[in-house]
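Let's practice the habit of predicting before peeking. Look at the sequence and jot down your guess about where helices and strands might fall. Then scroll down.
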Amino acid sequence: MKTGTPAEPARTAAETRMKAVVVHGAGDLRVEERDRPEPGPGEVLLALEWGGICGSDIAYWKKGASGTASLAHPLVLGHEVAGRIAALGTGVHGLHEGQPVTVHPAEPVGDGRLPDRIAGRTNLHPRVRYFGSAAFTPHTDGGFSEYRAVRAAQIRPLPEGVGTEQGALAEPLAVALHAAGRVPDLRGRTVLVNGCGPIGCLVVAAARLRGADTVVAADKRASSLDLAHAMGAGEIRDLTAGQTLPEDVDVVFEASGAPAALGPVLRAAARGGTVVQVGNLPGTAAPAVLGDLVTREITWIGSYRFVEEIDHALRALGDGLDLSPLITHRFPLDRAEDALTVAADPASGSGKVLLRLSAD
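Done guessing? Here is the structure:
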C-alpha cells in the first residue's frame, strides 16, 4: 500500500472563479466572471467587501477615458475599496487572514527617485500605477471584484472599531486631507469649499480636522449642501437660490472642477489669500476669468491625489470621525451599472455610492 500526503480535494468552480465589474469601452460595462487570483510572493489575497464609486470610474464608463488615460482593453474599475485578507503569499509578515484592511492604490514605477524640490511627494512621481487606471498598457485593474491580489506594501489595516464600509472611504478622505494639508495652517481660519460632491464634502471634514474655525460650503444642489452641513460646514450658500459666494475668505478650496467657477472663486478669496484647486480641471482649452489671480495677488495651489495621508485618514476614522452621512446609496455588485447611473446623475441626490462587492 502506498502512503503519503493525501491529495487536496479539487476546488469547485465557485472556489476558483469570481465576479468583477469590467468596462470594455464607452457605455459598455459588464459584470463578468474571471479566474480568482492567487497571492504571489509578497502579496495578499483580499476578499473585497465594499467599493466606492469615483468620478474616474464614471468617466471610463461614459467616455472610455478618464483625463488623458484611454481604454486600450477591458479594465476592472475601482480604487476606493476595503475588505478582509483571505490568504497570505510567501514572505508576508505582520498581517493575518480575516484582518479588515483597505488599500493604498498607488504604486510608483521605477527607482522612486524624485528631484530634491519634490522629495517625498510620491504622488508626483512621473509614472504611477493606480488601481482602476488605464494610464498604462496593460492597464492596472481596480478592486471592483470579489477578490484581488495586492502587494502587502499597499495594505493598510483598519483601526479597531472601523468597519470595511467606512474603510472604503479612507482613500477619498486621504485626497481631502492632502488638499487641506496644502495650506500649512488652517487653525482659526475661515474656509470656503466650492463644490460639494463627495470630495468637496470630505474637504469640509478635512478642514475641520485641520482646525478651521468656520467652513462655508457652496454648491448648486440643495442635497449636496445638506451633506456638506452634515460633514461640518457651519454655513451654506445655495448658488441657485440667489445666494453668492462670500467675500474676503482666507482659504478657498475649489472642488467643482468647473472652469466657469474660477472667476467667482478667485473673487471670493481675500487679497493675498489662497485658492487650492482640488477639482480636476479639463485637459482641453476652456474659458475662465482669471484676472483676479494677478490683481489680488492670490496664491493658486494644485492638489493631486495624496502621499501617505491615507494613514491620517484611518487615524481620524479610528478616533471617531463618522462618514456615514455621506453614504447615500448601496448596490450589490451585480447592479454596478445602476450604481454608476445614480452616482453620475445630479438629480439623484447621491453622495457617495457604494458597491457591495462580496456575495454575502
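How did you do? The chain has a mean pLDDT of 95.
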